[in-house]
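Inputs:
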Amino acid sequence: MNQKTETSGIWRIIGASSAGTLIEWYDFYIFGSLATVIANQFFPKTNPTAALLSTLATFAAGFIVRPFGALVFGRLGDLVGRKNTFLLTLVLMGGSTFAIGLVPGYDRIGFLAPILVLLLRLVQGLALGGEYGGAATYVAEHAPPERRGYYTAWIQTTATLGLFVSLGVILLTRHSLDSNLTESIRKFNDWGWRIPFLISIVLVIVSIYIRMKMDESPLFAKLKSEGTLSVNPIKESFGHKLNLKMVLLALFGATMGQGVVWYTGQFYAQSFLENVCKIDFDQSRTILIWAILLATPFFVVFGGWSDKVGRKWIMMAGMFLAVIAYRPIYGKILQLSDTTQTQSAIVSSVDLPMKTTAFGTNGDSLRISSSRKALANGFSYTLQQVDTIRLHSVNNHLAATKIVVDKNPDKETYLMLVFLIFLQILLVTMVYGPIAAFLVELFPTKIRYTSMSLPYHIGNGIFGGLTPFIATLLTTIYTADKLVGLWYPIIVAAVCLVIGLLYVSNKIDPDVND
Amino acid sequence: MKLIKKYLGIVWMALGPLAIYFLVSTAASEIRAKPVLDTKIQWGVFVIIFIPIAFGIMLFGYYALNGEYEGEINDQP
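Outputs:
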């Protein structure tokens, strides 16, 4: 009976922690997923100052401020308690997300709009930096020692599920504003994008209510009652050599590689499908949604397994597989989406309305003629011919370029793409499932929140968060190889793998009550 | 194994300045090639945030070279 009560207690704790963390991730992702739509509302590219704010809002808050959030809220968590700190991060995150949905556009309030959005983004990034450490520490400090990996793995599912929910809400909103899809998308781009931001407040209120009813972590409460709390957690975490060397080991031997594997599987994969392979907006997202849905249970599988075999080998196996498999996996994705590779015949071709866009001031224009092609196997795509028309030039018609966009893969190709993204998310579950337990066991209770948050957020926010950006940047520098972007996660994961294999211990700390 | 862990510390220490050199030279050439505000911000941010991390790996290497991580390997759960 007693054990049953204990078990129901831990599930209540996991439920409350996970719900809040999931919503924080949801809040964080919707901005990234809607960055292009939002940019048109708040950051007109014609104005250089607004463009600068746009770059900072989308680029800086996404990763730079997260380690600072880890320091600020980590310190707070070690000084005043886990429960109150991650209650505060939830309020800040939810409040700023809701507020983004209310900020009037640039056309109504001018520069105040991008400034407000940038400030709210910074608050979001800071809050996210403080959230994860609190939730992971809180669950781990309640969990029985022999099941710590299993229970904390539930927290690990929240980032992926947050992405899943954000993709789902965006797709649903984008399709439901009008019975005509084109009109629905137009309405979404105009004002409908605010809905995913605004509805998050309902979820946040529910989470706050649940979290308010939770008790403080028993280990933190014990330290508090004994009067042995840390006076200066930041100094103790990074000023003492014994702890600092563990912080460095956690970063270079675990979280750095975990971060790049995570962001490659969940973000670069989507960006690659959409921008390199030119898969249609909706399909590139549903492919990711299916892959996430199928792979998410494995967070718990690998977290639970790490209670038996140790955290290290599962994480290292995930990094090793990522290092050797990324190029073959992405090569296959590229091949599957390449319309010149298909042997299937074109069965229909429908011409779409021609579009002419003026550029410059001398009357030059771009003329885009498109036709929708359907192949016998069900694969369809739009072939665009782009002509540059120069009004006042002898050579007034430059050679046309042909590009293939909006690809809708046939069923077999679609399923294969889901499988290939699933494989990548499976690697994510290997490196990410056991890491909360690994980090919690590495540091003592009184400075745990601070110590584990910083390497986690440098690994994830900086090494991981930069993955899509650096990978895309590499493809613009070395244009001959479409897979060149993968060298960044491969090299970072390989260095982390070597350090992790050599220096990280596989020992499970049976007692985190220290 | 202890010797490998110890002497690989030199490699980790060397990675720091190597990363800084690569980063700064790439940033300079990218900014020269496309001197717009976005490029300057992005590469400026890269340089600012990765330099402390490069110092971090040098410190990690220094600790490794001094045998601070010996005894960390324990393959038994």
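Remarks. The radius of gyration of chain B is 17 Å. The interface with chain A takes residues 1, 4-5, 8, 12, 15, 30, 37-38, 41-42, 45-46, 49-50, 53, 56-57, 59-60, 63-64, 68-69, 72-77 of chain B (CB under 8 Å).
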